[in-house]
Write a structure and sequence with these properties.
Blueprint (H helix, E strand, L loop, with lengths): L15 H8 L7 H13 L3 H21 L5 E5 L9 H8 L4 E6 L2 H10 L7 E6 L5 H8 L10 E5 L8 H13 L6 E7 L5 H14 L10 H6 L5 E2 L5 E2 L8 H4 L5 E7 L2
Length: 266
């Protein structure tokens, strides 16, 4: 999930993808990740529910893109460890010919992805070892599986908050959106600094104590909205991820610490 540089695998240092896996109740994590996970849960007990809400937002947004918007290509950057309702599973359940490129830089994520994330026969699923900040390299490699003359959905779920410099994060998003044609989509979820602000600030502080780079930040809703400057927001705009086209009133009221939105490039 991280945007940090490629590093050799080190189980002694917490990694965002593995901490996230721990929050979700997964088993692909190590002692360092569990320590970080418990420290952050103590600061913000709803973080586990928020992680589940983020996965649910991913599934709803991909289903919308594949079904209602007719998107058949997805560039999912910051994939994280495989769990239920991965991007390709949701997209290919709607349109088996969908093509998905996953990007992450944690060796554990990539080894699991290659073993577990198998495509439908009609579609394509590819995996890239790359850093979000090396945007041009991602686009060059992804072009091996995706046709950038046709619409692409750019998925940036729970990753931009590992780019602490907001101007840099905005440049990355603008570069990605600039590389895809009209009719493409941008999907973002992002840690909020203005939802449960005291608890979130402490949660992020504790998270950064355990990460190699200590680069997790939260941002307020208006700053997250500015990442969508080059696209037209789809209703209901940038909202809590639980409130983006929820399946039920219960889902809409679930706790979350993430803003989320979907936009279409005009």
């Amino acid at each position: 999930m991280t945007a940090g540089g490629n590093r050799r695998f080190d189980a002694r240092v917490a990694h965002p993808a593995r901490v996230y896996d721990y929050w979700l109740g997964g088993k692909d994590n190590f002692e360092a990740d569990r320590i970080a996970g418990e420290a952050t849960i103590a600061a913000y007990p709803a973080i586990r529910a928020s992680a589940r809400a983020n996965r649910a937002f991913l599934a709803r947004s991909v289903r919308f893109l594949a079904d209602e918007a007719g998107i058949r290509q997805f560039l999912d950057i910051g994939t994280g460890l495989p769990t239920a309702n991965n991007t390709h599973e949701v997209a290919q359940s709607v349109a088996p010919e969908s093509r998905i490129v996953y990007v992450d830089n944690d060796p554990l994520v990539l080894s699991h992805a290659q073993a577990l994330l198998s495509s439908s026969p009609e579609g394509v699923t590819d995996y890239l070892d790359a850093d979000l900040r090396d945007t041009d390299r991602i686009l060059k490699l992804a072009a091996g599986a995706l046709d950038f003359s046709q619409p692409v959905a750019i998925m940036l779920l729970a990753i931009l908050h590992y780019i602490p410099d907001t101007a840099e994060a905005q440049r990355i998003v603008a570069r990605l959106v600039g590389a895809v044609p009209s009719g493409s989509y941008l999907v973002i979820s992002h840690a909020a600094s203005d939802i449960s602000p005291t608890e979130m600030a402490e949660m992020i502080r504790r998270m950064n104590e355990h990460l190699a780079e200590g680069n997790h930040v939260g941002r307020p809703r208006d700053v997250v909205e500015r990442f969508f400057a080059d696209v037209d927001l789809v209703e209901p705009g940038v909202v809590k991820v639980t409130q983006w086209r929820p399946a039920s009133a219960v889902e809409a009221k679930a706790p979350t610490s993430l803003w989320g939105g979907v936009g279409r490039k005009p």
